[in-house]
Amino acid sequence: MIKSILVPTDFSDQAESALKVAAQIARKNEASIYLLHILELPMHLSDLMSSGTAAAPQAVYFMKQAHNKFEELIEKDYLKDIEVIETVSFEDIHTGINSSSEKNNVDIIVMGSHGSTGFEELFIGSNAEKVVRTSKKPVLVIKEDCGLFEISDFVYATNFDDEDKPSLLAAHDFSKMIDAKLHLVWINTANGFKTTYETEEKMNLMISGLNINNYTLNIYNDITIEKGILNFAGSVNAGMIGISTHGRKGISHFINGSLGEDVVNHAKRPVLTFKI
Predict the structure, then answer these.
(1) Which of 152, 227, 161 is nearest to 183 (CA)?
(2) Global pTM?
(3) Residues near 250 by Cβ (< 8 Å), separated by ≥ 6?
(4) What does the alpha-carbon distance between residue 6 and residue 19 come to, in Å, rounded to a whole number?
(5) Quick one: pLDDT at residue 173?
(6) How far apart are CA 275 and CA 171, in angstroms?
(7) Alpha helices, DSSP H only, in the chain?
């Protein structure tokens, strides 16, 4: 059951798209929304705020601007009768989001993203990618304005290993909450090829011990796991993709990458990630 949701906002269109989705989830679960302003102040102002020193006039100005935008947002019809709690962070984006999610003990983070590709992806990465990499909470990334968040088909990619059981069960719970059919998929590639017999045996072994329903089991062949996930989601016209992530950091992340982060960056559909 989702009781509290964190929505980071820079008051952009992408952030408001995420807020609209969060509002629909909150209404269905009678949950509260923590609306987090990330105020990326100049270094000297940020240091003053984090040290507890009296705020400089410029910092006060930025805070008032953010509060005024917050007041405008909570008057939106889609937030009517939902508890929305204003909160502010002066840390960098992904640190501020993770700190706030832990402090307020939220159940899920819902955030908008532009995504990133090519040179930008290699050296910068999207903010959503950084949050996915470091967050201990599930993260739902919204790329475009979804309108009504009515998902009938939810793809969850898994290797059917024991370490993925908690995430698979969490994905199943989320699919039940949004009344969606869960499509569990194993992506078969040349590098990690398994026969249909081997794969089905592994699938059934895990599923037999889990209390889940309204799902399908699928094997999909593709060049890479990421392309397989995206292409399979397209083949079943899924409204959302789910995946677990190890959240590798540093040189390991640079060399090996992270499948969850890559899918978040490149998918057009909403992506829900779970930390293993």
Answers:
(1) 152
(2) 0.87
(3) none
(4) 9
(5) 95
(6) 12
(7) 13-29, 43-51, 57-73, 93-103, 118-123, 127-134, 165-177, 196-207, 225-235, 250-256, 259-266
What is residue 156's three-state secondary structure? Answer: strand
Rounded to an integer, what distance in angstroms lies between the CA atom of residue 42 and that of residue 55? Answer: 13
75-122 pLDDT, tens digit each: 999 999 999 999 888 777 888 899 999 999 999 999 988 654 443 333
pLDDT, tens digit, 9 for 90 and up, residues 150-189: 899 999 999 998 889 999 999 999 999 999 999 999 999 9
- Token readout for 214 is 């309204």
Other C-beta atoms closer than 10 Å to the C-beta of 130 total 19
Report the alpha-carbon distance of residue 34 to residue 187 in Å, rounded: 36
Q: Is 182 helix (H, G, I), strand (E, B) or coil?
A: strand
Residue with tokens 């593709």: 222
Of 64, 271, 57, the C-alpha closest to 156 is 271
Query: Tokens 């507890």 map to which residue?
Result: 52
Contacts of 170 (CB under 8 A, 6+ apart): 138, 274
Surface-to-core class of residue 207, CB atoms within 10 Å of its CB (0-12 exposed, 13-18 middle, 19+ buried)? middle
The DSSP symbol for 79 reads G
